[in-house]
Design brief:
- The chain is of the alpha/beta class.
- The protein is about 40% helix and about 15% strand.
- It has 7 helices and 9 strands.
- Helix 1 crosses helix 2 (about 65-80) and helix 3 (about 100-110) packs parallel to helix 4.
- GO terms for molecular function: peptide hormone binding; signaling receptor activity.
Length: about 240
């Protein structure tokens, strides 16, 4: 059975995904006929899952911040689906670290887990997803938002928004009100802001909008022009001004 402030993964989405993962992971090969899928309530289903997150960091999605949500999710999965999940901690100290995440993932695979929960850092998630795709091992993350798509990783489930979907509403609204030129102001030294800004710009250009970029160095902001001056300049070129 192989199965910046960031808001922690909503527990309802999390437990719903966990409760349904057993269907797609009940065998290493695709299920050919629905009659081969066991009855969910014919007996308790047991899943061994590794929690692959940072530990002791200042990140909002650090294990010690998310632990209460994970505990609640496990209780709801057991209550609503009669699925028992045994957790194995696969934590790595400090900030996002691809090497540490991959190392912990390999150890989890050696321990024959059915599911990996995490990582939350986008580079870590992508690296681990490459491994779980090879081993056909399910991975569930509530973050990893700084990449548009996880289509290359069919065994990865991302229960969050991403850099593509988060702009759908804004672009639709801009089209509705005929805001054809949009100024995008962002700090190019901040990876999150840079990624989000570039994603919005791609969206706008794909829909034949005009995107006016205004990038600045946050570290040098004290010696930079005032925000009022920047906005005054951009008002001459754009109708709408998202600010990062």
């Amino acid at each position: 059975m192989r199965c910046q402030t960031v808001t922690p993964l909503p527990s309802l989405v999390f437990y719903w995904v966990l409760g349904n993962l057993w269907i797609s992971t009940s065998a290493s090969q695709p299920v050919a006929d629905s009659s081969t899928v066991p009855d969910m309530y014919s007996g308790q289903i047991r899943i061994k899952a590794a929690v692959l997150l940072t530990s002791g960091s200042d990140l909002a999605f650090d294990y010690y911040n998310l632990a209460p949500v994970i505990d609640l999710a496990l209780q709801r999965v057991l209550q609503d689906y009669d699925v028992s999940i045994e957790l194995q901690l696969a934590l790595y100290q400090g900030q996002c670290n691809v090497s540490q995440a991959v190392g912990q993932a390999v150890q989890a695979i050696i321990a024959n887990v059915d599911l990996i929960i995490g990582p939350a850092c986008t580079p870590d998630m992508i690296a681990v997803s490459q491994i779980t795709t090879y081993y056909k091992l399910s991975l569930l993350t509530g973050a990893g938002s700084l990449t548009d798509s996880t289509d290359a990783f069919p065994w990865t489930t991302r229960a969050s928004y991403n850099t593509y979907s988060q702009w759908l509403f804004f672009v639709t609204m801009a089209a509705r009100y005929n805001w054809r030129t949009v100024a995008v102001i962002y700090d190019r030294d901040d990876d999150n802001n840079l990624t989000n800004a570039k994603s919005l710009i791609r969206h706008l250009l794909d829909k034949n909008f005009k995107a006016v970029e205004m990038a600045f160095k946050g570290a040098d902001y004290t010696g930079f022009r005032s925000a009022e001056d920047i906005l005054s300049d951009l008002m001459m070129q754009a109708r709408s001004k998202p600010v990062f």
